[in-house]
Known about the structure:
alpha/beta; Rossmann fold; 4-stranded antiparallel beta sheet
Amino acid sequence: MTSAIAVDRLEVIFDRFRALKGVSLEVEPGESFGLVGESGSGKSTLLRAIAGLAPVASGSIAVNGKMLGVRRDKAFYRDVQMVFQDPYGSLHPRQTIDRLLQEPLAIHGFADGEKRIERALDEVGLGNGFRFRYAHQLSGGQRQRVAIARALILEPSILLLDEPTSALDASVQAEVLNLLEEVRRRRKLTFLMVSHDLAIITHMCERLMVMQGGEAVENLTASDLVERRVTKDYTRNLLRASEGFVRTA
């Protein structure tokens, strides 16, 4: 089976700083794969490199069997969409939700925009009444639902999720995570998800990679993490630091 995402010995360099140091990764179609590690470990940089938003110095990235060049074409963005950490920062403040959802459809030349917008809003639990509101009129959770609707509207097969709930309250976090899980199951999507919260990753992902200083430390299953079957001290320290996650015997 062709991997949904195959990253091989990827290097990303910003002004002589090696943000990624030969990272390799494979994500299977329909899988939810997690990236964990402290801030600055390279998790988000890896996501951005796949999305074409970070400069690749060497190594390769393939999506659904197709090797990616320096530039990403329209076909790539139909297949791969990214949901960012800050729903307010990623939504244009002067555009209505309707306009925000119409934009990708216009770029990709979809004729059935009306139907798609209604379906996308419905799928993320927002009714048609939200179409002509602005981002500042919505709560944080509603804004992130709009960002997810915008990512889904082109019917991609892969979602890159960069801390999609870290800016939200705990109760709203759970709602958005449940929504993402439901959408993945219904659409058979592939997720590559970044989070510093180990509880979220074990809830959402089957497998994960632990990162530190731009390198892969170890690859684990979610149950390995829950059962503390880890081999590296760095991962043990992450577990210890993840409050409420480690239960005392």
